[in-house]
Specification:
It is built from 5 helices and no strands. By secondary structure, the chain is mainly alpha-helical.
């Protein structure tokens, strides 16, 4: 990103922060937001992987996925077939005594 793009991003953030902090939120509304975000987290996580890893050539994770021959549809299938936590969890490697 260029310095100008960074400055624009920070200016937008600063302008929006004041109105964000003025908003009051009820406990009921907060609970509804949390329920909605939990319901949508798998789709959101898949979108994040697609945008932040698979579509980002500088991603440090991309070479590992390519080496493992893991394609976008594989990640989508893993995320849809299981719970998100199960998909992201690394299997334990049991030590074998020699």
């Amino acid at each position: 990103m260029s310095i100008l793009a960074d400055l624009i991003t920070y200016a937008r953030f600063a302008c929006g922060l004041r109105s964000f902090l003025r908003q009051r939120i009820t406990l009921e509304r907060a609970r509804a937001i949390v329920r909605q975000r939990i319901a949508e987290r798998e789709v959101d996580s898949l979108h994040l992987v697609e945008r932040g890893i698979l579509s980002y050539p500088q991603s440090p994770y991309l070479p590992s996925l390519m080496l493992a021959r893991c394609e976008p549809r594989d990640i989508q299938n893993m995320g849809r077939g299981k719970a998100l936590e199960d998909t992201l969890q690394c299997p334990r490697v049991e030590e074998k005594s020699v």
